[in-house]
């Protein structure tokens, strides 16, 4: 209230000029916040026709992340991206600035994901909500599967958090690094040299199956892998955005 009073005094009672004055002063102060860690926030998910989007809005505290104005803007940004494209977030840059000014935290747009679906594709989505805000959002594009199946896969991804779709997606460098780590660990455990290679390969395979979606055990039925769950259907791609992730 004191800031508003001063703004009106500085601008001779002109409401619009006072608003600009507040914004200019607020942005000057907001620049000082830019270096502060923003590990909290909210994620929103939107589907518009044959497109789907996830947008993350970051802030410093969960108190701000749960504010109605913060959650509402996150939802609006997701709708914009789904309807117009990833660059559409710039249309609300002023609103982001205003939040940064009024809430006095380092607020910024984080991850932005947009799927344009193939003509024969189905999209599955899941948003995990905690304390009134989205914290874990998933999109899955599938061919040959029902919406219910795509949703089930999206829910699995939300909690299993795979890093890759298929085994071939794991880079050679990452495999080599993990193999070296497992070899050192196995030697430190006193495993016999003759069996070392087999032990390391077994552990590496386990490491891969924990991270590859199609090889993971289905969260609702661990007797089946995701590949077995989807049968003849095909997962084309997936995306997951987790607050603080």
Q: What CATH architecture of the largest domain do you see? A: 2-Layer Sandwich
Spans where pLDDT lies below 50 across 5 or more residues: none
Query: Which topology of the largest domain does CATH recognise?
Result: Tetrahydropterin Synthase, Chain A
Secondary structural class: alpha+beta
Number of helices: 9
Q: What percent strand?
A: 25-35%
**How do the SSEs run, as a string of H and E?**
HHEEHHHEEEHHHEEHE
Q: Could you give the order of strands across the largest sheet?
A: 1-2-3
CATH class of the largest domain: Alpha Beta
The CATH H-level superfamily of the largest domain is Elongation factor Ts, dimerisation domain
Count every beta strand, where a strand is a DSSP E run of 2 or more residues.
8
- Based on CA atoms alone, the radius of gyration comes out at 23 Å
> What does the main sheet amount to?
3 strands, antiparallel
Features:
245 residues; Tetrahydropterin Synthase, Chain A; 9 helices; 2 domains; GTP Cyclohydrolase I, Chain A, domain 1; 3-stranded antiparallel beta sheet
What's the arrangement of secondary structure elements?
Blueprint: H1 2-10, H2 15-30, E1 40-48, E2 51-59, H3 62-65, H4 68-84, H5 93-103, E3 108-116, E4 121-130, E5 133-143, H6 147-160, H7 172-188, H8 193-211, E6 217-218, E7 221-225, H9 226-230, E8 234-242
Antiparallel strand pairs: 1-2, 2-3, 4-5, 5-8, 6-7
Helix pairs in contact: 1-2, 2-5, 7-8
Task: Summarize the structure in words.
The chain is an alpha+beta fold. The chain folds into 2 domains: 34-167 and 212-242, Tetrahydropterin Synthase, Chain A (2-Layer Sandwich); 171-210, GTP Cyclohydrolase I, Chain A, domain 1 (Orthogonal Bundle), CATH 1.10.286. 46% of the residues lie in helices and 26% in strands. Strand 4 and strand 5 form a beta hairpin. Helix 1 (2-10) packs across helix 2 (15-30) and helix 2 (15-30) crosses helix 5 (93-103). The relative contact order is 0.13. The model has no long low-confidence stretch (mean pLDDT 89).
């Amino acid at each position: 209230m004191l800031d508003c009073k001063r703004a009106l005094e500085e601008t001779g009672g002109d409401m619009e000029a006072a608003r600009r004055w507040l914004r200019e002063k607020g942005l000057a102060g907001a620049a000082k916040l830019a270096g502060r860690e923003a590990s909290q926030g909210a994620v929103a998910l939107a589907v518009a026709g044959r497109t789907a989007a996830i947008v993350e809005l970051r802030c410093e505290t969960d108190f701000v992340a749960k504010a109605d104005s913060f959650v509402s803007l996150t939802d609006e940004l997701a709708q914009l991206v789904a309807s117009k494209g990833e660059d559409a977030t710039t249309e609300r840059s002023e609103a982001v600035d205003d939040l940064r000014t009024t809430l006095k935290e380092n607020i910024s747009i984080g991850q932005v994901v947009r799927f344009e679906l193939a003509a024969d594709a189905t999209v599955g989505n899941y948003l995990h909500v905690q304390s009134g805000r989205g914290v874990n959002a998933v999109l899955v594009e599938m061919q040959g599967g029902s919406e219910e199946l795509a949703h089930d896969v999206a829910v699995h991804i939300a909690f299993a958090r795979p890093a890759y779709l298929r085994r071939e997606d794991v880079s050679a460098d990452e495999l080599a690094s993990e193999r070296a780590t497992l070899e050192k660990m196995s030697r430190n455990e006193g495993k016999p040299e003759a069996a070392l290679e087999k032990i390391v390969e077994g552990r590496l395979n386990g490491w891969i199956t924990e991270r590859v979606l199609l090889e993971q055990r289905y969260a609702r039925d661990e007797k089946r892998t995701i590949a077995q769950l989807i049968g003849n259907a095909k997962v084309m791609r997936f995306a997951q955005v987790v607050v603080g992730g």
